[in-house]
Specification:
This protein has 147 residues and is α/β, with parallel strands linked by helices. The chain has helices at residues 24-39, 53-66, 84-91, 106-115; strands at 2-7, 46-49, 71-74, 98-102, 126-130, 139-144. Helices cover 33% and strands 20% of the residues. Helix 2 (53-66) links the parallel strand 2 (46-49) and strand 3.
């Protein structure tokens, strides 16, 4: 099983739009990032996002580019303040490749919990993890920083 953790692209400030959609740079960065991930052969079966507009727009770019036939949905346990324990528990026993588009501080917390610390999470980047035991243990395979 592979897990791809994606921090949403750059968003406009709440003073510009309270829903905080991706900025022009954010959309461009997300499209480039999705293309780079697809070029690595990534084809998730499931794409989850938090439901916040910036995460949904980020997830949509990966959905279009990597696998438009993937299950696509907003899901619980991905809000910025949610405890990473909840998502870790949901991943245990999974066998499908999953891409998650989410937020700080949730994603860095989840990454640290899954691999036991290590390097920080790249802002507006992607971290690819693999599990050989249905989500019990994880290893980082690669990462892409925002270009």
């Amino acid at each position: 099983m592979h897990l791809f953790l994606v921090h949403h692209g750059d968003a406009v400030g709440p003073e510009v739009d309270p829903q905080r959609p991706l900025s022009l740079r954010g959309r461009q960065d997300v499209e480039r990032l999705a293309a780079a991930v697809a070029a690595r052969g990534v084809k998730p079966a499931v794409i989850w996002h938090s439901g916040k507009l910036r995460a949904k727009q980020t997830a949509e770019a990966f959905w279009r580019t990597c696998n438009p036939f993937a299950e696509f949905s907003a899901t619980r346990d991905l809000q910025p303040g949610d405890t990473p324990d909840w998502m870790r528990a949901r991943l245990c026993g999974e066998s499908r490749d999953i891409l998650i588009a989410g937020h700080y501080p949730h994603l860095p917390g989840l990454l640290g919990m899954l691999i036991g610390g290590g390097p920080s999470f790249p802002q507006h980047g992607v971290v690819a993890l693999v599990s050989e035991d249905e989500g019990a243990t994880w290893t980082e395979e690669w990462r892409i920083e925002r270009g």
